[in-house]
Write a structure and sequence with these properties.
This protein has 243 residues and is of the alpha/beta class. It has 5 helices and 9 strands. It has one domain: 3-Layer(aba) Sandwich (Rossmann fold). The chain is 33% helix and 16% strand. A 7-stranded parallel beta sheet has the order 3-2-1-4-5-6-9, sandwiched between helices. Strands 7-8 form a two-stranded parallel ribbon. It binds NADP nicotinamide-adenine-dinucleotide phosphate. NADP nicotinamide-adenine-dinucleotide phosphate binds next to helix 1 and strand 7.
Length: 243
C-alpha cells in the first residue's frame, strides 16, 4: 500500500500490465477516492472507485475527449502515464542499423513520445494547484544516453530519450503556473508484461518483477518526491537516472 495520499488519480494505459497493477493498488488505498482509468480496450475493475474511459494515442482528439471526462471539481493529485510500445506484430526492436525503418521510428515515437506529450497538453491543466500534484510517465533506463553501454533498440531508446526531454520541458513550463507540480519520468525495472515478454529469457533470476511489485515500488518512490525532483527521471529503487 502506498503513502501517496492521492485522492483523485488518472491512470493512462490501464489495460497494460503496469497500468492495471497501479489501478488495482490505488483501488485499495483508503486515501484514493476516484480513479479515472483510460485505455484503448475497455477493461473492468471491481472497485467502485474506478471509472473507465477510452483513449487512443493515434488520435489527439481522443486524448482531448479523455481529459474532458474528468470533472473540474475533482482536481487531480496524480497522473500516471503507463502506456508504451517496444514491439508489435510488424515491428521488432533493431539490433543493427540495417534494421532501421521510417515505420518503426514513426510508430514508436507516436506512442512513446508524442502521446505522453499530448497527455501533458490536455491533462496538466487538471492537476491541483493548492497542494502537491504529481505527473509520472513511465520511461525506461535505456532512454538514458549516458547509461547506454549495449546499443541496439534504436527507435525505442530514441523515443524514450525524447520523452525525457518532453518531461523536463513540461516540468519547467508547468512550474511557472503550478508551483506545487512535480513532473517526472519513471523506470519500473524489468517487469513481466507483453512488452518485455520476448526479452525475459536473459533477465537474471530475481530481476524480473511482477507488475504488482513494480507498481507498489513506483508508488513508494512517488510518495517521496519533492519540488526539486521535478523534471527528473527515477528508477523503481528511488535512484535518479541521469540523461
Ligand atoms: N515491462 C518492462 O520491463 C518495462 C521496462 C522499462 C520500461 N517500461 C515501460 O513501462 C510502460 C508500461 O509497460 P508495460 O510493461 O506495462 O507494457 P504493456 O503491458 O504492453 O502495456 C502497454 C500499454 O500501452 C498501451 N498502448 C499501446 N498503444 C497505445 C495507443 N495507441 N494508445 C493508447 N494506449 C496504447 C497498451 O494498450 P492496449 O492494451 O490497448 O494495447 C497498454 O495499456 C511502457 O512505457 C514501457 O516502455 C516497461
Amino acid at each position: 500500500m502506498s503513502i501517496l495520499k492521492a485522492k483523485n488519480v488518472a491512470i493512462i494505459g490501464a489495460s497494460g500490465a503496469l497500468g492495471k497493477a497501479l489501478v488495482e493498488n490505488l483501488s485499495k488505498d483508503n486515501d484514493t477516492k476516484n480513479i479515472f482509468a483510460f485505455s484503448r480496450k475497455t477493461i473492468l475493475f471491481s472497485s467502485e472507485k474506478v471509472q473507465t474511459h477510452s483513449i487512443d494515442f493515434e488520435e489527439e482528439d481522443s486524448i482531448f475527449r479523455a481529459s474532458n471526462c474528468i470533472s473540474k471539481l475533482m482536481p487531480l493529485d496524480l497522473i500516471i502515464v503507463a502506456t508504451g510500445i517496444l514491439h508489435d506484430v510488424n515491428l521488432y526492436p533493431e539490433k543493427s542499423l540495417k534494421d532501421l525503418s521510417t515505420e518503426k521510428f514513426q510508430k514508436l515515437f507516436l506512442i512513446n513520445t508524442i502521446g505522453p506529450a499530448l497527455v501533458a497538453k490536455h491533462f496538466f491543466p487538471l492537476l491541483r494547484r493548492d497542494k502537491r500534484a504529481i505527473s509520472a510517465t513511465l520511461s525506461a533506463r535505456v532512454g538514458s544516453v549516458s547509461d547506454n553501454q549495449l546499443g541496439g533498440w534504436y527507435a525505442y531508446r530514441a523515443s524514450k530519450a525524447a520523452l525525457n526531454i518532453i518531461i523536463k520541458n513540461s516540468a519547467i513550463e508547468i512550474s511557472r503556473k503550478n508551483t506545487n507540480s512535480i513532473v517526472v519520468g519513471m523506470h519500473p525495472g524489468t517487469v513481466a508484461s507483453n512488452l518485455s515478454k520476448p526479452f525475459q529469457k536473459g533477465v537474471p533470476s530475481g530481476k524480473l518483477f511482477t507488475p504488482e511489485l513494480a507498481a507498489s515500488r513506483l508508488l513508494n518512490v512517488l510518495s517521496t518526491l519533492r519540488a526539486e525532483d521535478t523534471g527528473k527521471c527515477f528508477a523503481w529503487d528511488g535512484k535518479e537516472i541521469l540523461p
